[in-house]
């Protein structure tokens, strides 16, 4: 699985870092846009659940999860 952030939608609010408990965030992306933490472990269902919560709460719906 990997996190895809649409850079045209992301407003760099960094809410996803808190909500995903560090599985993603602005500091992991390019050009001040959110990206995936390279250490995020998608075999851990807690991590996946946190990312799904970030997807739901992103104010601009910029995040997707791909298999
Ligand atoms: S919550 Fe959404 S808009 Fe905010 S930094 Fe994360 S991906 Fe970007």
Descriptive notes:
With 67 residues, the protein is α+β, with helices and mostly antiparallel strands. It has helices spanning 15-19, 45-57; strands spanning 2-5, 24-25, 35-36, 63-66. The radius of gyration is 10 Å and the shape is globular. The N and C termini lie close together (4 Å). The structure holds iron/sulfur cluster (SF4).
- The helix/strand series, from N terminus to C terminus, equals EHEEHE
Number of helices: 2
Strand content: 15-25%
**Bound small molecules, which ones?**
iron/sulfur cluster
Task: Give the gist of this structure.
With 67 residues, this protein is of the alpha+beta class. It contains two helices and four strands, in the order βαββαβ. The chain has a single domain (2-66), classed as 2-Layer Sandwich (Alpha-Beta Plaits).
